Amino acid sequence: MKKILVIGAGGQIGTELVLELRKRHGVNQVIAADVKEECTDALKDGPYVKMDVLDKAYVQEYIRTEKPDDVYLLAALLSATAEKHPEFAWKLNMEGLFTILDLAKEGVIKKIFWPSSIAVFGPTTPRVETPQYTIMEPTTVYGISKLAGERWCEYYFNKFGVDVRSIRYPGLISYTSLPGGGTTDYAVDIFYHAKKTGEYTSFLNKDSALPMMYMEDAIRATIELMDAPKESVKIRSSYNLAGISFTPEQLALAIQENLPTFKMMYQPDFRQAIADSWPDSIDDTAAKQDWGWKEKYDLKAMVETMLKNVDPSKLN
Ligand code: AKB
Questions:
Q1: Which of 142, 186, 192, 200 is an active site residue?
Q2: How many beta carbons lie within 10 A of that of residue 215, not counting itself?
Q3: pTM here?
Q4: Do 149 and 257 fall into the same domain?
Q5: Residue range 264-279: average pLDDT?
Q6: Looking at the 3D structure of the chain, how many domains does it have?
């Protein structure tokens, strides 16, 4: 039976990914790892290890002993937080990746998943239906670290045959675990505020279109990519993935269809500049062609699911 290690399991993607992998492979086959002392409540039914991805000696020893087949390396600082702590963001986002790539090169790990982001694109990239191969001049620390990581993933595949797979995630929308430190976080926060107070002040302008995706689609895409036959995975840097593109104003209108009294205000902050450097929408033809990707959730379905499920008491 396959053994899987998810590093960064306490985060927005990690929590839902571990839950889904445990459904498919069995609870004890999927080890959740995170820097937090305590395992997040949702994952307490299965194995947990406290792991700081920057503690290279520990990570190496743990993985050489446990020998997981697949490792999902999700620990990272997102765009907004990375701008506040650039040196730490670079260190965290790069060093952990090298540790895992090198273990795979040694043959200890069979397959790696590493998340990239739409942040790899920059202001000189074509904004609409951004192609898989295009100009990439990111202007954020996070985007620079993701682009560098993509190049290293491809390098380790070409030079050493490391089976590494990656997706350029858009903003991810979910209700199980809150996101933290991203520019797209407004599209999650808004639902908590809509249910708690009936209003929300967006930190992005009303017409800032960004690529987004409902978490269930993102988790399915991640697992489908990891399950795809090796020969089908033709891109070893990272795959473009599109879901739903919308502006804060369009999201507010979609919420008002369910909660007519909902009120939206706009007060852009430093995150506006980050959003302005990213694409409006993404062309994911390569993912569709290579491993059969197809999104399920549109804006209406995503909004209805979020409004039904967010628990506003989670908001401090
Ligand atoms: C962020 O906003 O930083 C992330 C991302 C798009 O990678 N959600």
A1: 142
A2: 26
A3: 0.97
A4: no
A5: 98
A6: 2
